[in-house]
Amino acid sequence: MNSSSIPDVIPFIASKTYAHTQAWVRALQAVMPDERIVAFDAISDKEKAQCTVAIVANPDPADLQQLPQLLWVHSVWAGVERLLADLGDTELKIVRLLDPQLASTMAEAVLAWTLYLHRDMPAYARQQQQKLWQSLEYRRPQQRNIGLLGLGALGEAAAKKLIQAGFTVSGWSRHRKNIDGVECYAGDEELTLMLGKTDILICLLPLTPDTHGLLNARTLAALPAGASLINFARGAIIKDGDLHTAIDSGHIAHAVLDVFETEPLPVKEWHWEHPSVTVLPHCSAPTDRETASAIVAGNIRRYRESGVLPTTVDRIKGY
Ligand code: NAP
Predict the structure, then answer these.
(1) Residue nearest to atom 41 of ligand 1 (CA)
(2) What local confidence, expressed as pLDDT, does residue 89 receive?
(3) Does the pLDDT at position 1 exceed 80?
(4) Options 174, 282, 289, 315, the catalytic residue
(5) 243 pLDDT more than 60
(6) Domain total for the chain?
(7) What is the torsion angle, in degrees rounded to the nearest 10, for the CA atoms of residue 81, residue 87, residue 89 and residue 93?
(8) Which residue has the CA at smallest separation from atom 16 of ligand 1?
(9) Domain-located, residue 318
(10) What is the pLDDT of residues 57-88, one digit of tens each?
(11) Does residue 260 share a domain with residue 154?
(12) CATH no. for residue 85?
């Protein structure tokens, strides 16, 4: 707060091409009537000099550098690897979006695409093209082992949804988790143990130096032949050439890919036309502007009242 009782501006900063800046400003202002939420382009130099907190959606780092008093930013996205990379070495604290609605939307997507694979829909689509009337052997969900990479906010919600649907669920994280009904694995040494018994592998890891290229020829080979893969995290966690080879050989029966190293996925890429790949346009769990704004508002209100920041991103871990 500045010396008059007019609150300091909280800028909303997105990339120049982002189409929804005004919609975010309206949604955030509606839930923070005591604050002044303003698009970055509309704030004065004097106001820029006073900002201590900003709300961001993949901002241009050069914009952040124009805010000399900035202490922390609240991202409206759950993934922060791009923000971390763009910001480089800085003291600026980052708070990412932790929204139960986002976790629920992701869990719904996980269940939907797990059922797609579980009920052999890719194979039936191929059979239809061949006008082939042939039923495949049915397996109960209990007979299908689902392996989750990542048991954080999204992975845990997905695990619970899959258990409710009757699947046999395992999960892997850095530190061992204790989630009812989930066989929990931890650390590099236990990854291949989980992979070895996984029919459908679902990636919900953050992209960090440790997870970059984690799914490669060696780890994909640890899956049983005919396993399938869903990537709802970040494209670079998979070594794309190794996945292509594993799919062409039939070792991976089908991949549902929502995220890619380059997005939008260039038209020349092999994934588009491969019969064993489902391409999704990074749509598995979009941020809900309304629920996210309410969460951001709560975090900023608590900060204004107590000076305490919400949990911030650990720069060493990278998430
Ligand atoms: P989170 O709460 O930070 O959870 C991350 C999980 O990954 C944790 O269980 C963590 O283990 C585990 N992990 C991280 N590095 C690991 C490593 N090297 N080895 C083993 N486990 C590791 O993150 P989240 O909110 O669940 O989100 C996960 C990711 O989903 C985001 O980073 C984002 O990239 C992606 N996402 C995608 C979409 C989409 O629409 N496609 C939408 C939102 C988010 P510990 O618990 O032991 O730390």
Answers:
(1) 232
(2) 87
(3) no
(4) 282
(5) yes
(6) 2
(7) -80
(8) 174
(9) no
(10) 999 999 999 999 999 999 999 999 999 999 98
(11) yes
(12) 3.40.50.720
pLDDT, tens only, 250-266: 999 999 999 999 999 99
The Å distance, Cα 280 to ligand 1 centre, comes to 19
- Ligand 1 pocket residues where CB is under 6 Å: 78-79, 150-155, 172-175, 204-208, 210-211, 232-234, 258-259, 282, 284-285, 319
User: Which position among 234, 244, 254, 271 bears the catalytic label?
Assistant: 234
Q: Is the pLDDT of residue 3 over 60?
A: no
Same structural domain, 141 and 219? yes
In sequence order, which residues have a C-beta less than 8 Å from that of residue 188 and are 6 or more positions away?
A: none
Q: How buried is residue 312: exposed, middle or buried, by Cβ count under 10 Å (0-12/13-18/19+)?
A: middle
Answer yes or no: is 261 within a domain: yes
- Annotated catalytic, 282? yes
Q: Are residues 88 and 180 in the same domain?
A: no
Q: Are 187 and 214 in contact (CB under 8 A)?
A: no
Q: Are both 262 and 225 inside the same structural domain?
A: yes
pLDDT for the residue 33: 96
Residue ranges making up the domain that contains 255: 102-279
61 Cα to the center of ligand 1, angstroms: 24
Å from CA of 82 to ligand 1 middle = 14
247: number of CA atoms within 13 Å, CB side? 22
Is 244 part of the annotated catalytic residue set?
no
- One domain, residues 79 and 123: no
Residues 135 and 52 in one domain: no
Nearest Cα residue to atom 36 of ligand 1 = 233
Q: At residue 2, does pLDDT exceed 60?
A: no
In a domain, 17, yes or no: yes
- Shared domain for 16 and 47, answered yes or no, is yes
pLDDT tens across 9-68, in order? 999 999 999 999 999 999 999 999 999 999 999 999 999 999 999 999 999 999 999 999
pTM as predicted: 0.96
Cα–Cα distance for residue pair 36/29, rounded to 1 Å: 7
Q: How far is the CA of 294 from the centre of ligand 1 (A)?
A: 22
d(CA 151, CA 181): 13
Q: What integer pLDDT is reported at residue 8 of this predicted model?
A: 83
Q: Around Cβ 169, how many Cβ atoms within 10 Å?
A: 25
Q: Do 150 and 243 fall into the same domain?
A: yes
